[in-house]
Input
Amino acid sequence: MKKVLILGAGTAGTIMANTLSRKAGKEWDITIIDQAEEHYYQPGFLFMPFEVYTEKDVVKRRQKFLPSRAEYKQAKLDRILPDENKVLLEGGAEEKYDILIISTGCGVAPDEVEGMTGSDWGKKSHDFYTFEGASKLTNAMKNWEGGRLVINIAEMPIKCPVAPLEFAFLADWYLTKKGVRDKTEIVYVTPLSGAFTKPIASAILNHLLEEKQINVVQDFSIGEVDNESHKIVSWDQREVEYDMLVAVPPNMGDELIERSDMGDELNFVPTNRDTMQAKAADNIFVIGDATDLPTSKAGSVAHFEAEVLTGNILSYMKEEEMEERFDGHANCFIESGFGKGFLLDFNYEQEPVPGHFPFPHVGPFGLLSQTRINHIGKLAFKYIYWHMLLKGYPIPFVDHKMSYMGKKVARTVS
Output
């Protein structure tokens, strides 16, 4: 028997375990390894501080979503040895493989910023990119009576790059509902020169920040958190004071990648942007947040990647040429508060533009427009995630290759 070994049972790893269990030949064994017992719906962390979602919405037992055909092992990973086609586990055990899929994701690294985990951490300073952080921030927002609320992105790339913006928009709504918005100054501090990484979307989202009277500090590269004076300080010595800091720490790949000497300076794995193969070895593939691909680190992207990767792995198993190509497709709802939202649809080459999705002229979702149905789509994604996306089932009318239909963009035909 030959063996596919999947490292990480988060979104991407779970999707791949399910799709390969259905499509790979019986001569292939599938093993998936993760150190955690629980699976988290990470997009739901954003909603916890605003009392929209609770623990039961975002935490479920991991094995519930894994296929019976795949063997699941709960263990800590030590190192990948590509030249020997094996992975070492903590404690000395080892797992050999014929094909390796790295889906170890990424996480926050607050220790990378001087002072971020100081005396204010968990008190006046919080994150919402972890379950623990979102839980503490929920209590802090409940008890908030006014002051200066600062949202800071340490650096890019981060998981779901629009999530900090969504936090600012939802804070505006939540604090208005609580009756303390007029006592609150919301400040959005970003290392970017605008609200988002793509110019057209950035212009529209910048305008919305202005409408909501959310102050923006651009081109701010954080150097330290001063816990005594309750302020963040940039490398060029600009200062922003806070009564509450909502921090988005640096995001980094798993330390396993560093120990294996397979990553870049942020522990992301150099990956072929078309085929999803690791540049280190032909029989190693990478998916989801673990890659260094120039696209969003988000659940929808992992789902699109999985469709391409499944086809490529099946070709690799048959010793055939890999014909599938990933175009960087990302599909992202942006919650803007007060029961409305935006939708972005883009890829490596095409930035988000106005239009309709998924059907030209009729939508029902509006691209780069603020609508009620986009908000409903954002909330519906939780059901889709638990019942369709993790299982690797196709999402109706949404293909891994981005469609230009319904988009207001001039295409150049070569």
Residues 110-251 form a domain with the FAD/NAD(P)-binding domain fold (CATH 3.50.50.60). The chain is about 25% helix and 25% strand. The longest helix spans residues 299-317. The chain has three domains: 2-48+57-107+252-317, 110-251, 330-389.
